[in-house]
């Protein structure tokens, strides 16, 4: 009943294969390293660049094409490095510039590309520019690099408008003038320690182009661009009825809520056209990846028009509930939007900002999930989440385009769902008045060795966030060579993805007696047939299929096998 030549089966081609010889990023599998939590060589409990370099072999054996490093620059770490004080220097926590060079050299030897994170929406309040802005008078060139405004009301004691920080609380903070009297306010869409830059100012634009060149000259293959949809603000700075906490302005369009004045402004695209030119002046297909939480697929696709960035994270896929019709729509629309601008789609299930897919998919309400989980919150069904996450990974790796793996995803690592409040460090935790648990649960240091201190994360056993004792079972060395382990499943999936060229492949939906309405997703990519069972029970597999990869054990005898619920298979037609 699943195969194309069964009488009542329809196939609908929705995406054609790329022509051969395209750029590497069109089909790359990119692995996100979160430096604090990957591997600690120094023993202080915080991961570092030499630790990453020493473990790069793991990534090449896993079979990824590229690594994206979250920020390792000089930073007071108020938002885990997304508050940058010097864009051209490595924070001593993580190492030195020489360590960064050594990492790049080792990656090159292993054939891995390296993307680094660029944080252009805001700097740290310890950046030399912000330090110079504070004592400078209103209207000075030093203040013009940021968004300073007079307050409203008597004595300017009220914030310039009602915008809220993404992390909770107001988005404006008042500063004192040189003589100590209360002065202007500055905008920070995130933490108070992350003042927003003024992208209307040509000096800011020129500085970031110089920063791009600094890292391109050192040999990076490109950048993941943080909050790419936030740089340009509507210059009216009017009150807004929506919740800026919703980073995509998700409630824009609701009754009485106009478009978000701080997100996805048309002017932002000029910046990326200029950056495109900068990258194009270098050899080697360097790439820009947008973190743009846009409202629609079409809005997301505007960031990857041919003269802008090269990829954008497809967050719609990440946020889609675990349901066959919803996933089918998301995949179809994501591919159509990217095809309309000639860009590849990306597929992503986890990152350092969301509850890990293994836990998210075990919650009663799937989709984007809560902002963190604590011991007093409803706990995910671990077994269900793990089963679904394995199926979701096989779905993701079989789709044409580029796919992202968040560190630990290959180990099937769950979220830490019971971190005590006193160890949490995400500013969203305290800024929301402790109503949001925040993102620490997906940032816990990785387990490498079941029997070593801190599971091999650090030589001393130190770990900046505590690792659950159950993580011994998830350690890399407990999974290597173990048939059916998450690590071996990922490795095999990536090997077959390469062998069948699925990343540059095609996608045709196969619908018949069974289809998305019955909880079954079936498609072909080149000669591989992919089936994912999102229904509540097993579904018989037709004869004539040669299963080459399965996310879980199939039921029944060979030839009369059934695909259990929350399981995915890749198959080819028997000769
Ligand atoms: C992005 C990052 C997130 C950070 C925020 C502010 O969303 O992924 O971790 O907190 O930007 O820089």
UniProtKB/TrEMBL annotation:
Which keywords describe this protein according to UniProt? Glycoprotein, Glycosidase, Hydrolase
- Kindly give the CDD domains that the UniProt entry links to this protein: AmyAc_OligoGlu_TS
Identify one Pfam family in the record: Alpha-amylase
Q: What is its EC number?
A: 3.2.1.93
Q: Which GO terms describe its molecular function?
A: alpha,alpha-phosphotrehalase activity; alpha-amylase activity
Record-annotated Glycosyl hydrolase family 13 catalytic domain positions: 32-443
Q: Which Gene3D superfamilies match?
A: Glycosidases, Oligo-1,6-glucosidase, Domain 2
InterPro entries hit by this protein: GH, GH13_cat_dom, O16G_dom_2
4Fe-4S in keyword set: no
> Which domain of life, per UniProt?
Bacteria
Q: Where along the sequence do coiled-coil regions lie? A: none
Q: Name one GO biological process term.
A: oligosaccharide catabolic process
Similarity field: Belongs to the glycosyl hydrolase 13 family.
What's the protein called, per UniProt?
A: Trehalose-6-phosphate hydrolase
The organism's taxonomy opens as: Bacteria, Bacillati, Actinomycetota, Actinomycetes, Micrococcales
């Amino acid at each position: 009943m699943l195969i194309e030549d069964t009488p009542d089966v329809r196939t609908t081609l929705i995406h054609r294969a790329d022509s051969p010889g395209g750029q590497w990023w069109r089909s790359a599998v990119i692995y996100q390293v979160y430096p604090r939590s990957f591997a600690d060589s120094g023993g202080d409990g915080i991961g570092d660049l030499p630790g990453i370099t020493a473990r790069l072999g793991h990534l090449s054996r896993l079979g990824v094409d590229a690594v994206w490093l979250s920020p390792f620059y000089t930073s007071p770490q108020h938002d885990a490095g997304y508050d940058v004080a010097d864009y051209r220097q490595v924070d001593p926590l993580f190492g030195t510039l020489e360590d960064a060079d050594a990492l790049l050299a080792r990656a090159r030897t292993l054939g891995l590309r390296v993307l680094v994170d660029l944080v252009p929406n805001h700097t740290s309040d310890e950046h030399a520019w912000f330090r110079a802005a504070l004592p400078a008078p209103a209207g000075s060139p030093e203040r013009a690099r940021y968004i300073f405004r007079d307050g409203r009301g008597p004595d300017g004691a009220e914030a310039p408008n009602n915008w809220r920080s993404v992390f909770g609380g107001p988005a404006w903070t008042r500063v004192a003038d040189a003589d100590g009297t209360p002065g202007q306010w500055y905008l920070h869409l995130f933490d108070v320690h992350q003042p927003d830059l003024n992208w209307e100012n040509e000096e800011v634009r020129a500085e970031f182009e110089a920063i791009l060149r600094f890292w391109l000259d050192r040999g990076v293959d490109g950048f993941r661009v943080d909050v790419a949809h936030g740089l340009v603000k509507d210059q009216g700075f009017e009150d807004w009825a929506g919740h800026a906490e919703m980073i995509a302005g998700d409630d824009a369009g609701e009754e009485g809520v106009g478009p978000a004045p701080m997100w996805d402004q048309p002017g932002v695209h000029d910046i990326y056209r200029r950056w495109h030119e900068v990258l194009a002046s270098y050899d080697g297909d360097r790439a820009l990846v947008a973190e743009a939480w846009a409202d629609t697929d079409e809005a997301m696709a505007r960031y990857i028009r041919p003269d802008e960035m090269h990829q954008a994270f497809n967050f719609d896929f990440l946020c889609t509930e675990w349901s066959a019709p919803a996933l089918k729509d998301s995949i179809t629309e994501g591919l159509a939007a990217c095809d309309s601008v000639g860009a590849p789609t990306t597929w992503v299930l986890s990152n350092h900002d969301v509850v890990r897919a293994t836990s998210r998919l075990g919650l009663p309400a799937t989709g984007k999930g809560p902002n963190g989980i604590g011991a007093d919150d409803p706990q995910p069904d671990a077994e269900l989440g793990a089963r679904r996450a394995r199926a979701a990974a096989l779905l993701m790796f079989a789709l044409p385009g580029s796919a992202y793996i968040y560190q630990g995803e290959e180990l099937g690592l769950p979220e830490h769902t019971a971190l005590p409040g006193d160890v949490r460090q995400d500013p969203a935790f305290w800024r929301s008045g402790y109503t949001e648990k925040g993102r620490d649960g997906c940032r816990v240091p990785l387990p490498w060795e079941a029997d070593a201190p801190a599971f091999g994360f650090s030589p001393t056993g130190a770990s900046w966030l505590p690792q659950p004792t159950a993580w011994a079972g998830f350690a890399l060395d407990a999974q290597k060579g173990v048939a059916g382990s998450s690590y071996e499943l990922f490795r095999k999936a990536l090997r077959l993805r390469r062998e069948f060229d699925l990343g540059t492949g095609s996608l045709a939906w196969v619908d018949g007696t069974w289809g998305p309405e019955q909880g079954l997703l079936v498609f072909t990519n080149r000669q591989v047939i992919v089936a994912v069972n999102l229904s509540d029970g097993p579904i018989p597999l037709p004869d004539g299929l040669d299963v080459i990869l399965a996310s879980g054990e199939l039921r029944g005898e060979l030839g009369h096998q059934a695909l259990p619920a929350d399981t995915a298979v890749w198959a080819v037609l028997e000769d």
